Amino acid sequence: MKHIVVVEDEEMMREELQGILEKAGYLVSEITEFTGVAEQLLKISPDLVLLDLNLPNSSGFFICQEVKRKSAIPVFVLTSRDQLCDELAALDLGADEYLTKPCKKERLLARILNVLKRFEGRSNLLEGGGFLLDRQTYTLYIHNRSVVLPQNQGKILEVFLTEPDAVVSKEDLFTALWGTTEFIDENALQVNLTRLKKTMAKLGMDWQIVSVRGIGYRLDKKSGEV
Ligand code: CA
Fold first, then answer.
1. Distance from the alpha carbon of residue 7 to the mean position of ligand 1, in angstroms
2. Tens of pLDDT along 158-205?
3. Which of 46, 53, 74, 168 meets the CB 3.0–4.6 Å disulfide criterion with 5?
């Protein structure tokens, strides 16, 4: 059963959507607290997010951007706004589908099904900005090719992608690689980092691992690249 989260502040509309979706066989959750919506969505990790743009406290545009940056969850924007610039802005932020309300429920359901089909089997994928990482197989999808990373390199990259803006500490990496920070062997970590850096360079990735003195490491967009 596919899980859909409805982000809609108008209660009537929210309940109507829930009814339509449940009748169509989906498991439906609702967001009713409109602060930290992106975090809530990432935590729930549904198969699809149905997102209104006009929301209290935060804008749907921002939520869409956050969810797309940190996950491969499809975002379906459903809004009463009907201006072209809004549609373009939503698509620009990575929305996967866009529909203005009111709309026929048959059309809504057909479009949802379509998006879900497009994303079939992609729930394990982490979005990296120009590349994707399957966190189960450590397959890296980049420049229309796929490469299976050695497990340790995949684990390191996974840590970076789940904390895209943060500096990753050595302890985080130790825990990801060896499940403990107890017997810290700096060299073993360096060897794995060096291997991953080489792999990334070989694949022509726009990203590089840089060290942040005294704290750890960060994934940085290479300078000079778009
Ligand atoms: Ca609204």
1. 9
2. 999 987 678 999 988 998 998 888 877 889 999 999 999 999 999 999
3. 46
Distance (Å) from CA 163 to ligand 1 centroid: 30
Task: Catalogue all structural domains in the chain, each as residue range(s) with its CATH number.
Answer: 3-118 (3.40.50.2300), 125-221 (1.10.10.10)
> What separation in Å is there between the alpha carbon of 52 and the centre of ligand 1?
6
pTM listed for this prediction: 0.60
Q: What's the 54 CA to ligand 1 centre distance in angstroms?
A: 4
**What pLDDT, in 10s, does the model give residues 44-61?**
989 999 999 889 988 888
Alpha carbon of 19 to ligand 1 centroid (Å): 18
Return the minimum-mean-pLDDT range out of 27-36, 39-48, 140-149.
Answer: 140-149
Q: Tell which residue, 206, 126, 131, 220, has the closest CA to residue 167.
A: 220
**What separation in Å is there between the alpha carbon of 97 and the centre of ligand 1?**
17
